[in-house]
Amino acid sequence: MTYDKTLTALADTTRRRVFEKLRSGPKTVGTIARGLPVSRPAVSQHLRVLKEAGLVAERSEGTRRIYYVDPRGIGALRKWLDQFWSDALQTYADEVERTERKQL
Amino acid sequence: MNRTVTPAPVRKSVRVNAPPDRAFEVFTAGIGRWWPKSHHIGASDLDTHVIEPKEGGRWYERGIDGAECEVGKVLVWDPPARLVLGWQLTSDWKFDPKLMTEVEVRFIPDGPNATRVELEHRNLDRFGDRSGAFRAQIDSPEGWGGLLQLFAQSASQG
């Protein structure tokens, strides 16, 4: 299992602060942005990266989006599947190339 | 209150130098030739993988001892454009008939003789329903604690 994506996601100082804010409990984008020297769209972008890395999840409450630290270890599983499909699609692409060469 | 938990799906794509119909055929009929041999459910080494070419078809692996193990099933069979597979393996690589996550694969023409293959593995929140296995992961060195420790180490080294 590789932690590259997680480490990359947390390497950015602002993103790390966004993540740290969530460790005290679920929050909206607006609440997270308060006290940070960046715009709300920038915070949303950071949240997207954290979500892709499996560190943060979101849920909806009415029209609000609530972000929170993924508590169920899906991050670890997600990273594992991410790596698995990368490997599998690569061997698949190699097989397509091999099959096509044979037909020429 | 309506609360939905939505971990992001895993999305991958790859471009292959073959038209969609042949890309589709290698993905399905040829899955036994490209599926990573290291990943198998059965006790013996992997012989092959089979996707039955129809909606509701089985998706299973066969070990070199001849034993068959279910992986999931075909939910949508729409060659050469689209395939949706039901992935029913848990995080500890066991078949669970109660678990259903979807792997959608789209084959999109990309130039005269090439295809962009886009894969999405979704419903990852359903893995979380088996919370016992996940709690074990979180508590293991490879889980959350280990991750943060690893992060702390690399951050302090950097």
Q: Count up the domains of chain B.
A: 2
Mean pLDDT of chain A: 83
Number of helices of chain A: 5
Terminal CA distance of chain B reads: 45 Å
List the uncertain runs of chain A: none
Classify the fold: give the CATH topology of chain A. Answer: Arc Repressor Mutant, subunit A
Range of strand content of chain B: 25-35%
Q: Count interface residues per chain for the largest interface.
A: A-B, 43 and 48 residues
Oligomer: heterodimer
Percent range of helical residues of chain B: 10-25%
Strand arrangement within the widest β-sheet of chain A reads 1-2
Give the SSE order of chain A as H and E letters: HHHHEEH
What does this entry look like structurally?
The complex is a heterodimer of chains A (104) and B (158). By secondary structure, chain A is mainly alpha-helical. Chain A has a single domain (4-103), classed as Winged helix-like DNA-binding domain superfamily/Winged helix DNA-binding domain (Arc Repressor Mutant, subunit A), CATH 1.10.10. In chain A, 63% of the residues lie in helices and 12% in strands. Chain A has helices spanning 4-11, 13-22, 29-33, 40-52, 74-103, and strands at 56-61, 64-69. In chain A, a hairpin with a 2-residue loop joins strand 1 and strand 2 (64-69). By secondary structure, chain B is α+β, with helices and mostly antiparallel strands. Chain B has two domains: 10-122, START domain (Alpha-D-Glucose-1,6-Bisphosphate, Chain A, domain 4); 128-158. Chain B has four helices and seven strands. Chain B has helices at residues 20-28, 31-34, 131-139, 144-157, and strands at 10-16, 46-51, 58-63, 68-78, 82-87, 101-109, 115-122. In chain B, strands 1-7-6-5-4-3-2 form a seven-stranded antiparallel beta sheet. In chain B, 25% of the residues are buried. The model of chain B is unreliable at 1-5 and 130-158 (pLDDT under 50). The interface between A and B is large, with 43 and 48 residues.
